Amino acid sequence: MVATQNLGYPRIGKRRELKRAVERYWSGKGTAEELASVAAEIRRANWATQLAAGIDRIPCNDFTYYDHMLDTACLWGMVPQRFGAHSPGEPVSLETYFAMARGGKDAVALEMTKWFDTNYHYLVPEFDGPQPSRCGTAVVDAFKEARAQVGAAATPVLVGPLTFVLLGKRHTKSFAAHVADLLPLYAALLADLAAAGAEWVQIDEPCLVQDRSADELALYTQAYTTLAAGSRPKIMLQTYFGSLGPNWDTVMALPVEGVGLDLVRHPGNLRDLLERGIPAGKLLGAGILNGRGVWRADLEATLGTLERIAATVGPENLVIGPSCSLLYLPHDVNLESGHDAEVLANLSFAEQRLAELRTLANGLQGGREAIAGELAADRARLAARAASAAHHLPTQQRLAALDDSAFSRPEPFSERIERQNVRLGLPAFPTTTIGSFPQSAEVRAMRAKYRTGKVTQAEYDDWVKGRIDDLVARQEAIGLDVLVHGEFERTDMVEYFGAQLGGFIVTEHGWVQSYGSRCVRPPVIVGDVYRVAPMTVETSAYAQSRTQRPMKGMLTGPVTILNWSFVREDLPRSEVALQIGLALRDEVVDLEAAGIPIVQIDEPALREGLPLRRADWPEYLDWAVRAFRLAASGVRAETQIHSHMCYSEFNDIIDAIDAMDVDVISIENSRSNDELLQAFTQNRYERLIGPGVYDVHSPRIPSVEEMAERLRRASSVLGATHLWVNPDCGLKTRGDAEVWPSLEHMVAAARELRGAIA
Question: What radius of gyration, in Å, describes the C-alpha atoms of the chain?
Fold first, then answer.
């Protein structure tokens, strides 16, 4: 019997029930008991869906209120002292848990950064706190809860000890010493899971698809030899997001019963598997369906690949599943109703991936005749899709006609900045925000009325203008130097553009978790991309007409739109990025013509999209930078181009940031305690920088002195003439009661620094 496994499931609920329950708890309108009840219902629904789909191994402990890395840190009692005393062995309280995620009254939250090359953000564990110790029984309790519903299919999921340490920060010992501290805790937990009846445990070690040193690989061998020696369930060592490459021999020799491979994201694993096989007696977890893309699998081609794999390893040694957790997909295509049936027929969300998995298992087990009907229907679907491919000839012709001049501004930065200074007339330490302002219940309600036809276009436009009027006046009143229009008309920085660009569709219920309670609806790129009409010009021009101060036009960059969308699979990503860049170029030129002096083209996902192995970086960065420069290079020297990046390891991409040739870059800096600034000093970055002076993902209001001190440190590193002053990200997720005092303090801090210079 060919077995099936799932590696993880969306945890926000089909209609974002978890988001609402968590935010009610944060606001004081909901109790901890109510939150726990909603969470339990989501888990039950997820398990029931997987059980009904015939999945043989169903994950548990993959659910979290906020983040699985935060859960692991709390499991081991790794609570930094700034969040208050924590008794070893005691479960971390819900209050402390959320303080670590969001910040407390006087405590900065854990740093947040991207989970490998996804748009999911994880909280970075800190290793300079108390000695790790087992705190509570959450993992065993989660297994018992799942086992009561799905029986022996329940499979606990753990973040592996080496990945956990590798992705942490503030290490006070050697890598080996930190792993040694954790191994007895992991061993005891595995023993408890075995005693509770767990037959298998999934241990995630995605760091094995990255470049690893010989010492690190040796430590993997030592660590899993230690874990294998105790009483435990069978271990499925799960890797994903890439290929093992040179780590193959080490991983295959580990004393575990199974190894899971991603056979979708990179061809290396499949090539090595078919050439080398796997060790005798070891189970292969074949990640054959895309856990990060929404296009339905080609059943016939995928089954052919599985048949080759089964012939290599033996069907008795094979369990098939998605390439990674289904966390990165929406719940269910069947919730969608606003698009052509032919488009929806080609999409596969989490529930549909389960059905595809069961079909493939049946075909592998019973032969192609067992699924002849499904294969015939899929061939017809693919033929219909090929016949109706959305080509846009003008896009293709314009790209073919581009020469090198389209990818660079003719004047060097030194000349541009002189003209921009004359035009803008800004003081030292100019203050601004990243773009968005709070999306209150009133804002969301008005957008919903507009979307459902309860207000007319004219009524909605008047409402947007009224919000802009109020925001412009309030920004002027507190003394901000460069203003924004607030983005009240935008639901999300990528979805908003996807809804207006040709070649995209936007779903109704295609929500995925970005971090905590923050959910996004990635648009789906279904054809060639082009600008149908100006998207932001009218709104930006109106906002500029309401003030004498400079107004920023706000755009999302081509690489971020690409990386935060579900991308078509029939073109190289590089070509799709250039199509988006060309569409945005038209928008930038029109913003300049409308009198907008500053255009901000945000690229927070540039670093996120880096391939997981360094050898593959140059190719990606080359086309990513070209796409950005195509978007930004059509304007005159006196028009200032900004970009924003957040939660990135800037040392990895500093040369690419330099090559983007922006005039001003704003970066996340507050959670990393100024560590990220070192990348810009070590590489002698010459352009202007706005290092975020406070954390917008925390409800705390920083003091004037806190922000002034951060600016003083930044000045000592970068030089006062290079600095802009801004929060570390957009403000849409905060409330007015937090935003305006924080901005007033920020303006006061900037004025304090100006006075010191004077």
Answer: 26
CA 664 to CA 640: how far, in whole Å? 8
Dihedral of alpha carbons 100, 102, 104, 108, sign: positive
How far apart are alpha carbons 585 and 628 in whole angstroms? 9
At residue 106, the pLDDT reads 83
**Per-residue pLDDT tens digits for 150-178:** 999 999 999 999 999 999 999 999 999 99
Alpha-carbon gap, residue 63 to 543, rounded angstroms: 43
Exposed e or buried b per residue across 319-343, where buried means at least 16 C-beta atoms within 10 angstroms of its C-beta: bbbbbbbbbbbbbbbebbeebeeee
What is the CATH number assigned to the segment(s) 393-401+415-757? 3.20.20.210
CA 620 to chain centre: 18
Give Cα separations from 445 to 234, 306, 451, 512 (angstroms).
51, 49, 10, 21
Asked if 171 is an active-site residue, the reply is: no
Find, among 513, 472, 522, the residue nearest to 493 by Cα: 522
Tokens of 479: 């003394």
**172 SS3 class:** coil
Return the structure tokens found at 615: 């050898």
Query: Helices then strands (H, E): number in the chain?
Result: 27, 19
- The pLDDT value recorded for residue 358 is 97
- Work out the average pLDDT over 550-570: 97
Residue carrying the six token digits 């005092």: 741
Q: Is the dihedral of CA 126, 513, 48, 362 positive or negative?
A: negative
The predicted pLDDT at position 649 comes to: 67
pLDDT at 198 exceeding the cut of 70? yes
Q: Which residues on neighbouring strands pair with residue 502, listed in sequence order?
A: 530
At 55, phi and psi to the nearest 5? -80, 130
Residue 699: pLDDT over 90: no
pLDDT at 74 over 70: yes
Q: Determine the pLDDT at residue 640.
A: 98
Q: How far is CA 109 from the centre of its chain?
A: 18
What is the number of other CB atoms lying within 10 angstroms of the CB of residue 317?
Answer: 18
CA 500 and chain centroid, separation: 22
**Three-class DSSP category at 486:** strand
Distance CA(214)–CA(457), nearest Å, equals 62
Q: What is the pLDDT of residues 274-318, one digit of tens each?
A: 999 999 999 999 999 999 999 999 999 999 999 999 999 999 999
- Residue 553: phi, psi to the nearest 5? -85, 135
Burial class (CB in 10 A: 0-12, 13-18, 19+), 393: exposed
The alpha carbon torsion through 81, 86, 91, 94 (nearest 10 deg) reads -60
Read off φ and ψ for residue 219, nearest 5 degrees: -70, -35
| Residue spans of alpha helices (H) in 196-297 | 214-228, 248-252, 267-276
- Euclidean distance between the first and final Cα of the chain, in Å? 78
Torsional class of 301: left (φ above 0), alpha (ψ -120 to 50), beta (otherwise): alpha
Residue 378 has a pLDDT of 97
100/110 Cα distance (integer angstroms): 6
Q: Which tokens in the block code for residue 625?
A: 């930078």
Annotate 650-660 with b (16+ C-beta within 10 A) or e (fewer). beebbebbbbb
Mean pLDDT of the chain: 94
**Which range among 32-46, 126-140, 639-653, 692-706 shows the weakest confidence by mean pLDDT?**
639-653
Nearest to 207 by CA among 69, 306, 309: 69
Give the angle subtended at the CA of 241 by the CAs of 235 and 244, to the nearest 5°: 65
Query: Would you say 589 and 553 are in contact if contact means Cβ atoms under 8 Å apart?
Result: no
Please check whether residue 323 is in contact with residue 289, taking contact to mean a CB–CB distance below 8 angstroms: yes
Q: What is the pLDDT of residue 468?
A: 97
Tokens of 72: 């692991």
Q: Which of 688, 661, 731, 646 minimizes the C-alpha distance to 434?
A: 731
Catalytic residue among 68, 697, 722, 745: 697
Distance CA 100, CA 178 (A): 21
- 520: helix, strand or coil: strand
